[in-house]
Write a structure and sequence with these properties.
- There is one protein chain.
- The protein has helices spanning 20-32, 43-52, 69-79, 94-103, 115-139, 143-152, 165-179, 185-199, 204-215, 226-229, 237-243, 246-254, 261-269, 290-304, 316-325, 333-341, 344-354, and strands spanning 12-16, 36-40, 57-61, 85-89, 107-110.
- By secondary structure, it is an alpha/beta fold.
- The protein folds into two domains: 12-136, Rossmann fold, CATH 3.40.50; 143-354, Hypothetical protein af1432, CATH 1.10.3210.
- It has a five-stranded parallel sheet, with helices on both faces.
- The chain is elongated and about 65 Å long.
- The chain starts with 11 loop residues before the first strand and ends in a 27-residue tail after the last helix.
Amino acid sequence: MANQSAAPASQTILIADDSAAIREVLSELLRQRGYQTIAVSNGAEALQAVESKPVDLVLTDVRMPGMGGLNLLEKIQVRMPDIPVVLLTAWPSVEVTVQALRLGARDFLTKPTSSRELLRVVESQMRLREFWLEERDRSGLSQKHIQHYLGQLHQARATELELLFPVLQTLANVLDAREHETQSHSARVSAYAEFLAEHMGTLAEELKCIRAGGLMHDIGKIGIPDSILLKRGPLTPEEWTVMKQHPDIGHGLLAGVPGLRAAAEIVLAHHERWDGKGYPKGIRGPAIPFGARVFSIADTMDSMLSNRPYRKALTYSMVRTEVELNRGTQFDPEVVEAFLEVPEHRWVEVVQERCPNLTRYTLDEQPPTATGPAEAPAVSG
C-alpha cells in the first residue's frame, strides 16, 4: 500500500457499485487510510446519499442496474458540482471518455485497480477539490462556472476568442498541477508558439488560435487514468495505446465549440510529425495544421529546458542542435528556419512579457524544479 498520510476524519467518500465484493474492498482500503465511506449498489441510492449527507468524493461504476454512472455523474454535476466524481470502468473508448468528461468526470479508475492507484487518484482529487473551493472563494470561479463558460462558447464568435483566455488558462493550470512536473508548461509553450508564429508573419486571428491551442494542447489528458499519466518508468504497449488517445479526447472536448474549432485541430495534431510518423492520424507535411507544426518546436524547447526526474534541464544550444537535427523529419523545415533566426535572449523575454506571473529564468539556468513521471520521448511534452 502507498505510504501516505491519513485523511482528515471529516472526509467522506461515496462508493457506488453493484458488486458487493468491490464495495467492501474499496471501503476497507479507504477506511484504513482514515476516510469515512458510504457504500451503495446503484446510482439512485448514490444520488439520495449525496443529497442527504456531506460527501467529498464519489467513486462510481459506469454500468449499474437502473441509474448508471454517467447518469449519476450528470445529476451530481447539476446539483452539487463541487463534488468530484471518479468513474470505475475498463479502458473506456474515446467516445465514452469524451462524453464522461463533458458531463464533468474528474478521473477514471480501471478495473481491477490496485490499492496504490486508488489512493493516488483519491488523494489527487481531494487536493484538486481544495483548489477549486479556494479558487471559488477567492474569485468566484468554480467547476460549475467553468462548465457554464464552456457551454457559452457555443455562442461565441471567433473574434471573441480573447475573452475565453482566462477560463482556458485556469483549465491549463489545473491540468499542469495534476502532472506536477509540468508546472506552467502550458503557459510557456503557448507563449513560445504564439511568438514563433508571429515571427513568421502569421495574422492576428490565427495567432489567437495558436495561443488557445497551446494552452489546451493536453486537455485530453484529463481522460487518461492517473495510473498511466503519472506512471514512473516506461509505459507498456497497452498503456501507450491509451496515452495516445489524448489528442482525440482533447479534440472531442473542443471541436463542438465554434470559437475553438481551429484550436481543436491544433490539439488533435500536436503529436504529428513532418515525416508522417506521429500520432494519432499519421498525417505528414503540409497536411499538418500550421499551428501544430509551430507548436511542435515550442513544445520540444520547453521540454528540453525543463528539469526531469531522469535528467537536469538542458541548455538552449542543445535545443538548437536538436531542432536542427530533426529538420524535415519531426519538424517542418520552414518553421525550423524561423526558429533558428530567433536569438536566445528573445525567448527569455517572451516568457517575461507574455507570462509575467511565472518565475523568470534565463535559458542557460535551470528552470523551476519539477518532480513527476518520466516522459518519452525526451524532446516532447
